[in-house]
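Q: For a teaching handout, I want to show students what a protein-ligand complex looks like in token form. Below are the inputs, and the small molecule is manganese (II) ion. Please produce the holo structure.
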Amino acid sequence: MAYTDLRQYVAKLASAGELLEIDAEVDPEWEVGSIAYKVLSENGPAILFNDVKDYPYPVLANMVSTMDRCALAMEVAPEVLVDAYIEKTSASDRPDLPVVERDQAPCKAVTIPKEKLSFDDLIPPIVSNPGDGGAYLNFGLIMTKDPETGLQNMGIYRLQLRDGLQTGFWCSPTSHAGMIRGKYEALGQDMEVAICVGADPVLYLASQVPGMDLGQSELEMAAGMRGQPFDLVKADTVDLLIPANCEFVFEGRVLAGRREEEGPYGEYPGYYGPVGQQPVLQIEHATRKSEPMFLYTYLGLPPTDTHAMGQLSGEAGFLHKLRTDVAPTVRSVYCPPDMHTVVVSLKKTYEEQAKHVIFSMWTSRIIKTVIVVDDDVDPRNLDLVSWAVANRCHAPRDMITSDGFCTIGPSPEKYGDGIAAKIGIDATEPMSGFPALVRPTSDMLEKVNERWGELTSPKASRLRAGKGR
Ligand SMILES: Cc1cc2nc3c(=O)[nH]c(=O)nc-3n(C[C@H](O)[C@H](O)[C@H](O)COP(=O)(O)O)c2cc1C
Ligand SMILES: [Mn+2]
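A: Here is the structure, written as tokens, with manganese (II) ion included.
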């Protein structure tokens, strides 16, 4: 059964042992981010902050920051997560998106009267990292509409909170929202926006599916991934559809031609992004559930929600691409959570195949480093991967670099206007011949496996203990 809303997902997190509830009061200015960072760096659970200082509602953090939690979000077993993601994001028959009446929409249970509208009562002023240029609303599903086609887009863009019910609105010019905003700017018109905070986590995963065309609907994608229709409702003051079961809705306009200083902001490479002149969003209307829960994501060094969602979409997308473009004998793909590296395990069927894998992965704008290993190496086992690089890679022959690629992401290592270099490491054995590997034969290991129960029985352990070992 698909999740109806964020609270149902939180209940699932709790029953799966994936939730830490913190009842003590915590400070949004430094403590929420620090706690989220600590728990993430220990690969810990999602966190429900029940008492954020001076804020009336609970705040959920780190909701999909591991592949296991992404699997919970998609309601599949972790072992089949990547395959399920490939299948569901490429499925063509997606369930409907029924539009429900306004009074049936839980997200509109409470409308905040205009004269009482204030960020203070609605948004916890969380500063993720000490060098950030202030508090941000950073995990809202942001709806916009292409003024030429009328088609709606959904993505996540950070919003720097300011006085006067205004926020910064930074979106990369290569994102759909960036392209759409450019169209409004050219028309000299404000851009209508609806920000939906807290919903079925599948909507968040769908918002990050890469490679979609401008105009392709992330909402439809989400319905497909969820395998069930979900309800939408018309926003009150802007011409956009929003998930009926989200926790908070903010409606407003990005002001044509206006620019203000935005940033700095701790970005996913683990460095602060620069201050820039960015567009300004004016919030004019807000509604909420009767008992809403806010949603926050820590951003900085991996792992975070951003890295886990990138890891999932990367592994799925790259596995699919390599199996179709290069070879069906690509065994598996691992994306470490830095967002720019991919390790591919391949059963080579001709000598140069690893190079073809490298070039295929270089065509992705996000990938900088490609490591190819043989199919006897689990790409997730970075110790074995580095063993393969040490023993199977002859650098002058097997390492290739190339400069001058357009790339995405705010890594400080890039130079010029988003230009970066790429590296490929072929750590596969040459097919022309290599010494035999040192290890027991598979026959020997199979026999050991057959005896495993006997070898590890309590009696055998006692005998071992008796020998003083
Ligand atoms: C937590 C989080 C914050 C993000 N913040 C931004 C942002 O501020 N600006 C941006 O351009 N992309 C941001 N992204 C990435 C976009 O949401 C992502 O590229 C999305 O697919 C863009 O969708 P679109 O191409 O339909 O606009 C963020 C992603 C996550 C997970
Ligand atoms: Mn889009």
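A: Two things your students might notice: The first strand starts at residue 19 and ends at 22. The two ends are 52 Å apart (CA to CA).
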